[in-house]
Every structure is written in structure tokens, then in C-alpha cells.
Amino acid sequence: MAYSETKVVIGGLAHIPIIIGFFYLIRRQYSFGAMLRTGKNALSEKVKAAPAKAAAPAKAAAPAKAAAPAKKPHSDVPVNTYKPKAPFTGTVTENYSALKEGAIGKVQHITFDLSGADPDFKYVEGQSCGILAAGEDAKGKPHRPRLYSIASTRYGDNFAGNTLSLCVRQLQYEKDGETINGVCSTYLCNLSPGDKVKISGPVGKEMLLPDEEDSNIIMLATGTGIAPMRAYLRRMFEPTEIEKHKWNFKGKAWLFMGAPKTANLLYDGDFEHYKSKFPENLRYTKAISREQQNTKGGRMYIQDRVLEHAEEIFNMIENPKTHIYLCGLKGMEPGIDEAMTTAASAKGLDWSELRPKLRKAGRWHAETY
Ligand code: FAD
Ligand code: A2P
């Protein structure tokens, strides 16, 4: 008897887990059904809740949006006011040689009257414009526009704010014993006062000057690459310019200019004059390739001058207020890079790392052609 009673008790106890399991299953089934009906379970709510939580910072960030968005530097500089398909027609006011006797080739300083433009043809120092040469190409189509760096400040050579000047070298080369003249450069160099010219632009923000009056500006130019530098230097040192814009340059400017002969140095008299008036603010270093020799006995190029002054240049570059501008022959870029690499390594720096950083910081400006 005792034996059979014990068996019943043990048998009853053995059913308890089965009964608990049964109730558990029913509950689970109920929950699963509810989940199917509502399309959500505890987990999914958590997941859904997460974005709600994550959304909170977005709300918190909203005031930043409400505050005035930081203005991109130079965002108000005009670009493409006149497109190549609808150019402005300017009038030539002067066209004279920028070279001295004995110089090689033909380089002209040409000024256009922009008055009557509607909208105004406004530009700033460091921009370029497009020129559409008169006539047609070999296929009977209008010539494609060619770009030229603007050599005047926004006030123009006459300070009236209604002209634009260029510095143009006539492209000439020999082919099969024949002299070939560049289409647009020849057209420009041969213009006379009163001629009408189709001008597009302005274009480009790569070569703009910084706003800060205490910036340092290093300029590396070959030939007509001097055009934007002339505009910068006029803005910095031409008395009437300073009076007009109240931008009082207080930094150091250093121009490296490459030309084949002394007679080819463009605007040299103006720059020498600025240097004599502002000796603390302007340095002017020339590389006259066919009259001077580098240390290896070759032609003196601006990269050779950069190497000579490497330490001073790098001391300036270490200052975040220093900007470097490069304009002119495309061929000078590898030479400049090589010189900078040598100069950098003398200071234990890696130019291949430094240059992209300078560019990203908006301190390395290059326009070569
Ligand atoms: P094209 O008739 O267009 O002939 C040029 C073509 O001739 C070349 O594309 C090439 O195919 C060929 N060619 C050239 N040289 C040789 C050679 N040695 N042998 C064989 N074939 C050759 N120029 C200035 O004078 N001043 C400036 O301020 C200036 N600023 C510029 C700014 C920018 C941003 C750019 C991109 C260019 C600038 N230029 C400047 C150059 C200018 O745009 C023209 O490229 C230049 O004037 C030649 O144009 P072209 O119509 O006279 O020559
Ligand atoms: P060169 O022609 O004697 O070799 P321009 O446009 O008036 O001809 O002036 C361009 C200047 O740039 C010239 O002195 C020219 O020298 C020089 N030049 C030519 N090739 C390079 C180069 N690869 N790097 C730097 N300067 C150069």
C-alpha cells in the first residue's frame, strides 16, 4: 500500500513540469498571435524605438540649422554671368606690347570696356574670362572659347570698375617648315581700339586672394602666368586701389617671376616701383632663363630660385596665414614639386603629404596651361 501511494505521489509530481510546460506554450502561442496581429513584438518595438532615440540628436542638432549657415568662402564671387552661348560684347580700349625691345615673341596688354553690360560684368582678382575669336573654325563652326586670366583688379586699370585687362602671348610654333599662329591669341594680339570682342565669364575661384589683410602671399609665375599676380599686386600696393577698397594688405608678398630674357619681364617697372615703396611687404625674385644659369649650369627657372630660398619659403609655409599661387606653363609644375620636395626634406617634411594638406586648407592655388 505504502508502495502504491508513493507511486501516485511521484506520478503526480512528475506531471507538474508537463502542466507548467503546457501553460507556457499556451501563453507563448497567445503572444505570438498577438505579434502577428499587431505586426510587432517586444524586440521590434525596441528596434523601432531606437531610431526614435537616434532621432533625438537630430532634433537637438536643429538649432544649428536654424542658426545662419556658415558662409562658404568666396560664395558671393560672381561666376558665369555671361556664358559662352550668350557672351557680352566688349570694346577694346587699348592694346599695347608688354615687352621691351629685344624680347622674344609677342605679348600684349589688352583692355576692354565693359560698360553697358546688363547684368554688370563683375569679377574679382584671380578670375579668368573666355574669349570667342571672330570667324569660324575648319568645320565652319564658331571658334570655341579660350580662357585668359584677368590681369586687372575689379576696379580695372582706370579704377572706374568698368574695364577688364588681359596679358596675352601670341602662340606661334613651327610645323613642317611653316609658322602656325594660334587662333585666339593671334586674334587678341592684333585687335585695335574700338574693336568689338565677345567675352564670357568671369570663371574660376581657384586663384582668389584670401580676405585677411595679414595673409602672406607667395607667387610663382612664368610668362603670362603673371596676369593674376599683376592683379594681386595692384590690389595690394597701388595707391588708388588701396584708397578705393580700404583693404590694407599688411602681410608679406613674394613674387617669383620666370622669363626668358630681361626684356620679357612683364610689368617689371610696376613691381620694382611697389618694391621700393613697400620694401617690408614685397620681395621680387627673378629667374631669367636665357641670361642666368642655375647651379648645374642649366637655364635658370623659378624652381631653381625656389630651391635657393627653400628655408625661408618653408618657414613662411609653416605659418597658416601663407598662401601659394602658381600660374603659367604647365611644364613648371613638376619642377616646382621637385624643388619643394627637396626643400621639404631638408626640414624633415614630406612634400607629397604636405601639398594635399595645403590644398585642402585652401592655401595652395595652381592654374597652369
Ligand atoms: P590654338 O589655335 O588653340 O592652338 C593651340 C593648339 O596648338 C594646342 O592645343 C596644340 O594642339 C597646338 N600647339 C601648341 N603649341 C604647339 C607646338 N609647339 N607644336 C605643335 N603643336 C602645338 N594665355 C595667355 O596668353 N594669357 C593668359 O593669361 C592665359 N590664361 C589662361 C588661363 C587658363 C585658366 C587657361 C586654361 C589658359 C590660359 N591661357 C592664357 C592659354 C589660352 O587659353 C590659349 O590656350 C592660348 O592663347 C592658345 O590659344 P590659341 O587659340 O591662340 O591657340
Ligand atoms: P625657356 O623658354 O628659356 O626654356 P615665356 O612664356 O615668356 O616664354 O616665359 C616662360 C618662362 O618659363 C621662360 O623663361 C621659360 O624658359 C620658362 N620655362 C620653360 N619651361 C619651364 C619649366 N619646365 N619650368 C619652369 N620654367 C620653364
Mind explaining what this structure looks like?
This protein is α/β, with parallel strands linked by helices and 369 residues long. The protein folds into two domains: 88-203, Translation factors (Elongation Factor Tu (Ef-tu), domain 3), CATH 2.40.30.10; 216-368, Rossmann fold. It has helices at 2-38, 42-66, 183-189, 226-237, 239-245, 268-277, 302-308, 310-317, 332-346, 351-360; strands at 88-97, 107-113, 128-132, 146-149, 163-169, 172-175, 178-181, 196-203, 216-222, 253-259, 282-288, 322-328, 364-368. The strands form three sheets. A six-stranded antiparallel beta sheet has the order 4-3-8-1-2-5. A five-stranded parallel beta sheet has the order 11-10-9-12-13, with helices on both faces. Mean pLDDT is 87; it is low at 25-63. Bound molecules: flavin-adenine dinucleotide and adenosine-2'-5'-diphosphate. Flavin-adenine dinucleotide is lined by residues 128, 146-149, 167-169, 171, 173, 175, 182-186, 224, 227, 367, 369. Flavin-adenine dinucleotide binds next to strand 4, strand 5, strand 6 and helix 3.
Task: Write a brief structural summary.
The protein has ten helices and 13 strands.
What topology emerges from the helices and strands here?
Elements: H1 2-38, H2 42-66, E1 88-97, E2 107-113, E3 128-132, E4 146-149, E5 163-169, E6 172-175, E7 178-181, H3 183-189, E8 196-203, E9 216-222, H4 226-237, H5 239-245, E10 253-259, H6 268-277, E11 282-288, H7 302-308, H8 310-317, E12 322-328, H9 332-346, H10 351-360, E13 364-368
Parallel strand pairs: 9-10, 9-12, 10-11, 12-13
Antiparallel strand pairs: 1-2, 1-8, 2-5, 3-4, 3-8, 6-7
Helix pairs in contact: 4-5, 7-9
Bound molecules: flavin-adenine dinucleotide and adenosine-2'-5'-diphosphate.
